[in-house]
Amino acid sequence: MQTAIPVQRKVTRPRADALRNRERIVSAAREMFVEHGPDVPLDEIARRAGVGNATVYRNFPDRDALVREVVCSVMDRTVAAAETALAENGDAFEALERFVHSAADERISALCPMISSTFDQNHPDLEAARERTEQMIAMVMERARAAGQLRADVGVGDLMVACAQLSRPPAGAGCLSVDRFVHRHLQLFLDGLRAPARSELPGTAVTLEDLRQV
């Protein structure tokens, strides 16, 4: 009796044009979510991306899937920016600065509030992206602190709160109209993180667990 030889199944890989379409959809969605909020019609996103409605739904079966992909991709790019800065010269504080300014460019402060209002915060993709971001920030801050660059009385939560507040446009102001202020104010904040500390902060360093309990 002969043993049947297993049939090797060919792995289907997405075509390059399909990947480009997906990237265009995510990019267009990020822009329009920032400009108009998470309820912007998907037809409008398709139009800006230059693809048909069917292409949007083929990639993202519902609005939650698209919002989640946008938020995850934004977090991944900010992490990559910090990792690149750290690899270039090993300066942890510069990597921290790169993360903060990249987060502002990606409009994290405008996008992340969508998480709590539109879909499951515990989705595996979202949790994985959040964990990568938190681990990178904690690692970079610890390296900067060990190198004597970062004051000892600040935590990851302090950084996250300040970034969100400083990069969020004031009420009644458009997100794009305050760009010239955001990076200026973020740099002032970053300079205040440098060691040695010039003042004593009230309270204790804010952790991520503190933020989750708010």
UniProtKB/TrEMBL annotation:
Q: Would you tell me the protein name for this molecule?
A: TetR family transcriptional regulator
For this UniProt record, give its keywords in alphabetical order, as a comma-separated list.
Answer: DNA-binding, Transcription, Transcription regulation
Taxonomically, the superkingdom here is Bacteria
Keyword Transmembrane helix, does the record have it?
no
The record places the DNA-binding region at: 41-60
Is the keyword DNA-binding assigned to this protein? yes
The UniProt record lists the HTH tetR-type domain at 19-78
Q: Which GO terms describe its molecular function?
A: DNA-binding transcription factor activity; transcription cis-regulatory region binding
